[in-house]
Amino acid sequence: MVRKKDRFWSYVEDLDDRFKCNFCRCDFAGGAYRIKYHLAGVKGHAIDICTSVPEDVKNEAYLAIGGINKKLKSASSSSNAQESKATSCSTSKDLCQATDSKMCGKKDKSVVNKLLAQLVMVNNISLDVVQTTSFIRFVQGVADYGPEYKLPSNLTLQRKLIPNLMVKIEEYIRRIKNSWSITGCTLMSSIWSDVDQRAFINVSAYSPSGAIFLKSFEVSRAKITTLYIKDIISSVIDEIGSDKVVQLIIDYTTNFESTRDMLIGKYPQLYITRCATYGIQML
Question: What is the pTM of this model?
Answer without folding.
Answer: 0.52
